[in-house]
Amino acid sequence: MADHSFQGFRSRFILLQKELSTLPTIAYLGPEHTFSHLVARKRFPEGRLIPCVSIAEVIAFAEVSQNHLGLVPIENSSGGMILETVDRLLEEAQPLFIHEELALHVRLALIGHPGEAPVVVFSHWAPLGHCRRWVEERYPGIELRVAESTAEAARLAAKTPRAAALATREAAAATGLAVLHYPVEEGIVNLTQFVLLGRGKPTPGGRETSLVFSLPQEPGSLCSFLEAFRTEKINLKRIVSRPVPGQPNTYVFFVSLEGSDEEPPMERALRKAEQRALRCRSLGSYPVLAPYDS
């Protein structure tokens, strides 16, 4: 028999609070209806999603609590590395680890006012760069304008006569625009990769390991560091160097390697590499998820 007493309702409320507290809280680069939001919803359909105005804000949110996670883009197949994300990961004091790498096959929609040929197209710089030729061939003389995000591009297009945006189909629905063309294809893969960041170390069994390191200012130091991984037949997936602020001609590096730090070849390589570095910090070994479709 159901308990309809005050104590019964209180017990169910406490149980509901406990269930909610176990749901992940994920910050992502907002606003809503961006591709970052799409990835966050696909990965955490039951999670509490928090839109943030910048990558720095996402990372600050993830740093606050063990129960917080942050989802940020790290690389686009057309636009290259997302340097703001890399720079934050390179900071010596930052406490976060990479928990997962995710990816999205980006399929853009051209959205706009029905029955109007657009004379201006808004979007984030990356979609504009990827789709410039497609847009200009179909709308000669069109003006391309950069927006902070694809969602902001949709908002701008909605209030601008004869304007369109390269954005998500969800952004069209949210702003009252029509989908003029989907998908906008350039004939090449448009893949954006993301990392999920958190304070705790990722669970064992990852497929990829990322490191942050700095090296002595001497000939061959980078070659010597990487040789440890070549010897163990570990593939280097990506490497980025960034200048150290206030120290001309001095650099810090971010690398991603294929393999787990629990595997003997990676363990041996890491021991050798650490001896050749001034500083070397592992951002964890983490799973790489199959790409989502947009």
UniProtKB/TrEMBL annotation:
Positions of the record's site feature: Essential for prephenate dehydratase activity: T192
A single Gene Ontology CC annotation of this entry is: cytoplasm
Question: Keywords assigned by UniProt?
Answer: Amino-acid biosynthesis, Aromatic amino acid biosynthesis, Lyase, Phenylalanine biosynthesis
- CDD domains attached to this UniProt entry: ACT_CM-PDT
A Gene Ontology biological process noted in the UniProt record is: L-phenylalanine biosynthetic process
**ACT domain: which residues?**
210-291
Gene Ontology MF term list: prephenate dehydratase activity
InterPro entries in UniProt: ACT-like_dom_sf (IPR045865), ACT_dom (IPR002912), Chor_mutase/pphenate_deHydtase (IPR008242), Preph_deHydtase (IPR001086)
Q: Which residues form the Prephenate dehydratase domain?
A: 25-199
Q: What is its EC number?
A: 4.2.1.51
Record-linked PROSITE patterns: ACT (PS51671), PREPHENATE_DEHYDR_3 (PS51171)
Pathway(s) the chain acts in: Amino-acid biosynthesis; L-phenylalanine biosynthesis; phenylpyruvate from prephenate: step 1/1
| PANTHER family to which the protein is assigned, alphabetical | PREPHENATE DEHYDRATASE P PROTEIN, PREPHENATE DEHYDRATASE-RELATED
Its protein name is prephenate dehydratase
Please report the organism this UniProt entry assigns to the protein: Methylacidimicrobium cyclopophantes
